[in-house]
Amino acid sequence: MKTVHKLILKSYLGPMVLTFFIVMFVLLMQIMWRYIDELVGKGLTFDVIAELMFYFVITLIPVGLPLATLLASIMTMGDLGENNELLALKSTGVSLPRIMRPLAILVLCISVGSFFVANNLVPLAYRKTAALLYDIRQQRHSIEFQDGIFFNGIDNMSIRVGHQDPETKRLTNLLIYDTRNRTGKMTTTTAESGFIGLSDDKEFLKVTLFDGETYEEDRGREWYDRSSLQHYLFDRQDMTIPLEGFNMARTDESMFSSAKTHNIKELAHDIDSLKHLVDNAVGRLNSEFLANSVFIHNKELAFDTLPKTHRRILPLSDSIAYLSENQMAQVVSNAVSLGNHAKSYLNYDEEIIKQNINQYYRLNTEWHKMLSLPVSIMIFFLIGAPLGAIIRKGGLGMPIVISVSFFVIYYIISITGEKMANEGVWNTWRGAWLSTMILTPIAFFLTYKATNDSALFNAEAYLNIFKKGRNIISGLVRRFKP
Q1: Which end of the chain has the least Cβ crowding within 10 Å, N or C?
Q2: What is the DSSP track for 369-415?
Q3: How far is Cα 32 from Cα 19, in angstroms, rounded to an integer?
Q4: Beta strand pairing status for 163-164 and 150-151?
Q5: Spatial separation of the C-alpha atoms in residues 365 and 433, rounded to whole Å
Q6: 440-472 burial string, b = 16+ CB within 10 Å, else e?
Q7: What is the DSSP letter of 253?
Q8: Residues contacting residue 280 through CB under 8 Å, at least 6 positions apart
Q9: Where do the structural domains in the chain lie, given as residue ranges?
Q10: Cα–Cα dist 308/319, whole Å
Q11: How far is residue 140's CA from residue 244's CA, in Å, rounded to a whole number?
């Protein structure tokens, strides 16, 4: 490998790794902020939160990798241009495409690797993320008391504390209503002080009360049963109450399936299955509904009401003239009944077909997105490298502004195309590849301009063009002025 190629690759790898981690951190904080309400107050351990963040990072790779590639390309070529290293290479007869060649090979390898990540790791991470979030949502909040407010996080129990010491966790002025007994017995306990907390395995509630009294009211199973009231005084009372829902249980990941949890082979299989299912449903609707539910029943009804002497003479369209008033009413009543039945049958089949078609569109979109990801990475490289050579600014200032601007445009176009494809307004390939089709000409245009040392962002060049245009217009006005 040439020394120049080593220099360029070394200049690119550093910013690529740096920008990738910066982008992933920003995206991770954004998605964690979205779920912050579901995570706070659950008493989650650090390993559970770290596991969830790890899965989030994997699912964000298809979003963060193109942006990191764009930003790193602008920074690398901008640094080379700002330090006049590009100018020195060009003065020796090395063209910009030859300078970009080692970077293009490296980005091509990254693009191919991104496909395998999106195909193998991302679906698995989506499935694990869905299962873990479900388990977190099912887990109850930890025991947290607020002064003077009833805590109702435990089934059939209500606890109020007057004050909780933040350091010792000692509770004062406790009031506990306990209705867990299924025979109708209700227990009311008051205590001057005590401690309430979860066991280490979060399967039991440990209660220690001091200087209190307990009232047990037995109301009986029925309203006419005689009730009784018992009163106890105690210096210390210890209770261990079984709990459910405070210790997070793990759900089987196979229960969570969607378009994002399948690889490209599974998506292709599901697409073929749904297409076959929709075709069969539409064929059944055409054959069974139209032929058996509408036309044949009406034909038999009209034919059976005719006199026997006319059944072989008149066509079906003329049979209505030989019906009596009662027969006509019967035909109309039966027709309305058949119509209502056919409408219900049609609405049910239509809803099933609509759901399958919507799922078919989503699966198709995900299939195309897996293929468009490597292409989008190459497109962003072909946009970023020429832009860096043109603006000749390194660092994180101007490159971030330009990168974010292009990425926002790309993201808006991608979301719009996917929405149109999922709703069936556009063809699936058109919606999934819309952003790539729009950015590809821009990439080749910037590469052409950078190769020819065009002053694309030179304000003076655009000002000269404006002055020339103004002079031409002024000359035409003077020429044709009467």
Answers
A1: C
A2: HHHHHHHHHHHHHHHHHHHHHHH---TTSHHHHHHHHHHHHHHHHHH
A3: 20
A4: unpaired
A5: 9
A6: bebbeebbebbeeeeeeeeeeeeeeeeeeeeee
A7: G
A8: none
A9: 3-139+369-457, 150-242, 259-366
A10: 12
A11: 9
The set of residues, in sequence order, having a beta carbon less than 8 Å from that of 61 and lying 6+ positions away, is 24, 114, 117, 118, 121, 122
Which residues, listed in sequence order, are joined to residue 321 by a DSSP beta bridge? none
Closest CA to 179 of 148, 126, 134, 218: 218
Q: Give the Cβ contact number of residue 424 at 10 Å.
A: 14
Query: Counting beta carbons within 10 angstroms of the beta carbon of residue 399, is it exposed (0 to 12), middle (13 to 18) or buried (19 or more)?
Result: buried
Q: How far apart are CA 247 and CA 45, in angstroms?
A: 11
**3-state helix, strand and coil shares in percent for the chain, rounded to the nearest 5:** 65, 10, 20
Containing H/E element for 29?
helix 3-34
What is the structure's pLDDT at 121?
Answer: 92
- Beta 185-198 vs 204-218: how paired, if at all? antiparallel
CB 381 within 8 A of CB 73: yes
β-sheet bridge partners, residue 176: 159, 189
Residue 287: the pLDDT is 60
pLDDT tens for each residue of the chain, 482 residues long: 577 778 888 888 888 898 899 889 988 998 888 888 777 766 677 888 889 999 999 999 988 899 889 888 888 888 888 888 777 887 777 788 888 888 889 999 999 999 999 999 999 999 999 888 888 877 766 677 888 888 887 778 888 998 888 888 889 999 988 887 776 678 889 999 999 887 776 778 888 999 999 888 776 555 555 667 788 888 898 888 877 655 566 777 778 888 888 889 888 888 888 888 777 776 666 665 555 555 544 444 444 444 444 444 444 445 555 566 676 677 677 777 766 666 666 666 677 777 888 888 888 888 988 888 899 999 999 888 888 888 877 666 677 777 788 888 888 888 888 888 888 788 888 888 888 888 889 888 888 888 876 655 555 565 677 677 777 777 776 766 55
Enter the tokens of residue 329: 């009413």
Collapsing DSSP to helix, strand or coil, 211 comes out as strand
Q: CB-side exposure of 457: number of CA atoms within 13 Å?
A: 12
Lookup: tokens for 97 = 């495409």
4 φψ region: left (φ > 0), alpha (ψ -120 to 50), beta (else)? alpha
Q: Report the C-alpha gap between 453 and 392 in whole angstroms.
A: 11
